[in-house]
Amino acid sequence: MTRINLVPPAELCDQHLLAEHRELTRIPNAVAKGKYHLKGQPTEYKLGEGHVRFSLINWPF
């Protein structure tokens, strides 16, 4: 999967943009349902496992 924040959006195809949109809308829904806990967040951005947890600290919950 291409990380949208590492590639200029103009270079991404529609499929990449739609996949990123689906992932971004999953984050607040998962927090609201209690599936993600805001404890144990990574302090630095990372690719792969943990990138969603890092994104959670940048959202206004």
From TrEMBL:
InterPro entries: Pyr-dimer_DNA_glycosylase, T4_endonuc_V
UniProt name for this protein: Deoxyribonuclease V domain protein
Species name: Haemophilus pittmaniae HK 85
Lineage of source species: Bacteria, Pseudomonadati, Pseudomonadota, Gammaproteobacteria, Pasteurellales
